Amino acid sequence: MKTNPVRRTAVCQGTLLGTLILLVATPVVAQSSKILQIEEHWELQVGGPDSERSAPQATMVMSPFDNLDGLYFLFTLNHQTVPEYHAGGMQVQLWEGDTELDAAGSDAGTLSQINDNIRWVQRLKVDGGNLTFEILDGTSASWGAFGGGNLSLTTPTSLDSLNSYRPAVTITESEVGYAGNRVQALILQKLVWVTEDGESHELVAPIDIDADLDP
User: Fold this and answer.
1) Cα dihedral angle (26, 101, 109, 124), rounded to 10 degrees?
2) Separation CA 119–CA 201 (nearest Å)
3) Residue 60 to residues 18, 53, 93, 158: CA-CA distances in angstroms?
4) Which residues, 6 or more positions from 105, have their beta carbon under 8 angstroms from its beta carbon?
5) Taking a C-beta distance cutoff of 8 angstroms, is the pair 146, 120 a contact?
6) Which run of H or E residues covers position 19?
7) pTM to 2 decimal places
8) Other CB atoms within 10 A of residue 51 CB
9) Where do the structural domains in the chain lie, given as residue ranges?
10) Interval 83-134: pLDDT, tens
């Protein structure tokens, strides 16, 4: 049994409140349409990183459900925490409640470039009895291109859709957990989802989920 590293008491602030209320209350599409794939497009704007202290560090959360009581995934940036803490790099993790089930990582070193804009896509997909979480299309001045391969996890599932997903879970539970003063913004740029009819849908946010970070 491992201790759940996710902060479960994140507070929505200021201009985000109205948007977050809508995201908490509603799914990304009507329940009559089965959602088979969801992408969150993210950007982490770093001002002045400290490579010796592996600062800053962010932890992203994505769940196929509207809570963190069952299965969910973490994506850690500039640190790894399973099976023990490791500075730098990235890691994807699979959790069920407070229990860590699986992890895979990339030893990409620490963030080092001033004014680095780290962009990536985190995707959930259900297909043929499997649930997959993966990081795709990552770019960073410090890390170069990243994603796929060792930043992907798959687990068996009884889910046949992702209709219980709520973007508010990601927004309220993800955070810059260390050295937030070195981050300018952590922005959900847009959501993209695919329904069982093969149609792709898009919602352009953008939402800075850490409005208390230094400008």
Assistant:
1) -30
2) 20
3) 22, 20, 10, 24
4) 80, 82, 86, 89, 90, 91, 92, 150, 151
5) yes
6) helix 17-25
7) 0.86
8) 15
9) 14-208
10) 999 999 999 999 999 999 999 999 999 999 999 999 999 999 999 999 999 9
d(CA 88, CA 91): 10
Burial class (CB in 10 A: 0-12, 13-18, 19+), 17: exposed
138 Cβ contact partners less than 8 Å away, ≥ 6 residues apart: 118, 119, 120, 121, 145, 146, 147, 151
Single-letter amino acid, residue 143: W
pLDDT level of residue 55 (50, 70, 90 thresholds): very high
Contact predicate 35/162, CB 8 Å: yes
Average pLDDT over residues 63-82: 97
In angstroms, the first-to-last Cα distance of the chain is: 38
Structure tokens at 27: 């799914």
Checking if the pLDDT of 13 tops 90, the result is no
CB atoms within 10 A of CB 111: 27
Write down the pLDDT at residue 26: 52
Structural element, H or E, at residue 208: strand 200-208
* Bridge partners, residue 103, by sequence: 93
